[in-house]
Every structure is written in C-alpha cells, then in structure tokens.
Write a structure and sequence with these properties.
- Helices cover 26% and strands 17% of the residues.
- The protein is an alpha/beta fold.
C-alpha cells in the first residue's frame, strides 16, 4: 500500500470473518511472526510490516508516527478493527486505539506472538 509519494506499507493478510485483528509486531521481526496466531484465528487478520522489507520508515521515530502509518494503511481496507500488539507493537496498538477510539473494538496486548494468551 502506498502511504505517500515516497513511502509504502507492506501488509500481510489472512482471510476470516468478523471484525479484523490488526497484528502489530516488535521492531526486530516481520509480519510473518504472526503466522501461527493468524492460522488459528477465525477472524480476518492484517499484519503490517513496520519498517521491514517493502515498508518504509515513518516520518518520525515514535510509536504515534507508526500508528499513523498503520491507520492509513489498514483504513483503506477496514472500518473497525482490534489492534493486537507485541513488544514495540504494544505502543503502536495503543497509539492507534487513542487516535481512532470509535473504530477500535478491543485492544489486545501480548507478551509474545506465539503465547497461548494471544490465541
């Protein structure tokens, strides 16, 4: 997805129904870290790559700037969602929830993407 003339956000997506989960990972991993979690979910899952691979860095290096990019990236695909964050993704998920409180169904904060508490 193109964010602006010079920046883009790569989003991995898994099919499902109901309100989607937006899976936000730590800075040193990729959206593939959510593969096992998404595989057991019945809900649609979207996992943006926060600057890794084909995704660009945000305009500022703070969680709110990452959240702005995530909102722009997934906002074109969904109206409401549940952000789920792990590690640095917790800060991004929280910032996204603060920016779009009416669009956020629930906020999920995880210790690790493969932990039983995230499934």
């Amino acid at each position: 997805m193109t964010l602006d003339a010079e920046r883009s956000l790569n989003i991995r997506e898994w099919p499902g129904s109901g309100e989607p989960l937006v899976l936000l990972r730590g800075l040193l991993s990729s959206s593939a870290a959510w593969r096992d979690v998404a595989a057991v979910m019945t809900r649609r899952c979207l996992a943006p790559n926060l600057p890794v691979g084909r995704s660009s860095r945000p305009t500022k290096t703070r969680p709110a700037a990452y959240a702005d990019d995530v909102i722009r990236g997934v906002g074109a695909r969904i109206d409401s969602f549940s952000p789920a964050g792990h590690s640095f993704g917790i800060a991004v998920a929280t910032a996204a929830a603060k920016r779009l409180p009416r669009a956020v169904i629930e906020l999920v904060l995880c210790a690790a993407p493969d932990s039983a508490g995230c499934r």
